[in-house]
Amino acid sequence: MDLRRLRAGEWILAASGGALFVSLFLPWYGAASTLTAWESFTVVDVILAAIAAAAVAVLVVTATQSVPAVPIMLESLVTVAGMVATVLVVVRVLDPPTGAGGREWGIWLGVAGALGIAGGGLVAMRDERLSPPGRPTDHTGRPAGPPGEIETLSAPSREGTT
């Protein structure tokens, strides 16, 4: 595991995923008693928990993979899932379940977590870790030696072919 591979986008994704997951256990609605997301929903809470876990998994996958293809693919999928989570949470803000009273502070943490997953994914996908001029890096972003000279080869001859 190499934490030097992690960029701001992965940290935002992980923190937002953690916030969304924690918000599921906090009060979302007030009534005669407070209701958490687990008590208020049937399927939406499971979907939000899976999206939150995937957002945290991006941090682990990026730190453990030696090639950037897998983390970039996972970041793009989690970004779309973060947009889905944002829609699900905003719908629950605008249309609370029956029997729910006012909105509690846990729902606002859920909104922030879902928006953070979508935004963090966009930041992570945008950062392709290009080397700054004069400072070459390898595919993980670590400093590397300068690239070698390019050897030119002559074109193969067509003699002897039929």
Question: How would you portray this structure in words?
Answer:
With 162 residues, this protein is mainly α. It has one domain (3-126). 55% of the residues lie in helices and 4% in strands. The chain has five helices and two strands. Strands 1-2 form a two-stranded antiparallel ribbon.
Question: Approximately what portion of the residues adopt beta-strand conformation?
Answer: under 5%
Mean pLDDT, rounded to whole units?
82
* Number of separate domains: 1
The global form is: elongated
Q: Calculate Rg over CA atoms.
A: 23 Å
Largest sheet: 2 strands, antiparallel
- What sequence of helices (H) and strands (E) makes up the elements? HEEHHHH
Bin the helical content: 40-55%
State the strand order across the main sheet: 1-2
Question: First CA to last CA: what distance?
Answer: 55 Å
Number of strands: 2
Enumerate the spans where pLDDT stays under 50 for 5 or more consecutive residues: none
What structural category do the secondary elements indicate?
A: mainly alpha
Count of runs of 4 or more consecutive helical residues = 5
